[in-house]
Amino acid sequence: MGNRTDQENRRRFLLTTAGLLAAGCQYNSGKGPLVRGGVARPLENQIEPPAGPSERVAAKGAMFAYGPLVMRETWTRFDLEKNDKDKDKDLKYMSGQRVIDVKKSKKKLPLNNLPNRISVHHDAMEWKGRHDFSSARERLRTIQRYHMQKNWDGIGYHFAIDGRGHVWQCRPLQYQGAHVGGENTRNLGILVMGNFEVQHPTQNQLKSLEKALQIFHQAYKIPGSRIKGHKEYASAATLCPGKNLFPKFVAMRNRIA
Ligand SMILES: [Zn+2]
């Protein structure tokens, strides 16, 4: 019965998000987000402690506000539970079509070509239900699948922040991201999960975003003037990262020298 409920929840999640992905940050036409209901309301602050068994695979990466970086292989491998050793298998598994291996991508940057700017996004998918490990993982998989259906090298963002404030590794940093049209060179992309046109980020997300910005600012010597919300790019016709996140993000940026 438990399994059946999980499957049903997952099916509903996928059905819900499939439609909303059309309003994802890269493709918003400027006509406004394609979301149901326009009333801003706070997220349900049901934040689960990191206790799921899957979370044991979180590696000892950089420390963020709520713990270590959740490494990419934690969530990109659909068959992790089956102890499949082929790390790249998920890349083909997810889209069902040929994808470019990130390791062979022509977009690989020289090691000395570090990020020199940061862009912040939301995914324009309203978060419903609990903020837990498995929901965040399913969301990232949905986004990755969507990006790969465009023949991109996997998910376009470099990092993502879930409702609990945990930071997830997405595309490895040595690869150019795909998150701001025409402006991806040396541009570190951070996704904050949710639709902040219609809901509010959690306090954990805000705290974690600020900490992450500080860490990247220090690590790559990126000044506040080079940290932007997606909609600040002249080429972007989007509301991303949403009216309920943007002013708070600007305040964070202003606190960075
Ligand atoms: Zn965006």
Description:
This protein has one domain (2-37, 46-254): Peptidoglycan recognition protein-like (Lysozyme-like). Helix content is 28%, strand content 11%. The protein has helices at 2-20, 73-76, 89-95, 133-148, 203-220, 246-254, and strands spanning 41-42, 63-64, 67-68, 117-122, 159-161, 167-169, 187-192, 199-200, 227-229. The strands form three sheets. Strands 6-5-7-4-9 form a five-stranded mixed β-sheet, with helices on one face. A two-stranded parallel sheet has the order 1-8. Strands 2-3 form a two-stranded antiparallel sheet. Helix 5 runs parallel beside helix 6 (246-254). The chain starts with a helix and ends with a helix. Mean pLDDT is 72; it is low at 1-6, 8-23, 26-60, 79-84 and 86-103. Bound molecules: zinc ion. Zinc ion binds next to loops.
What are the SSEs and their pairings?
Blueprint lengths: L1 H19 L20 E2 L20 E2 L2 E2 L4 H4 L12 H7 L21 E6 L10 H16 L10 E3 L5 E3 L17 E6 L6 E2 L2 H18 L6 E3 L16 H9 L3
Parallel strand pairs: 1-8, 4-7, 4-9, 5-7
Antiparallel strand pairs: 2-3, 5-6
Helix pairs in contact: 5-6
Bound molecules: zinc ion.
The site of zinc ion has 5 residues, from loops.
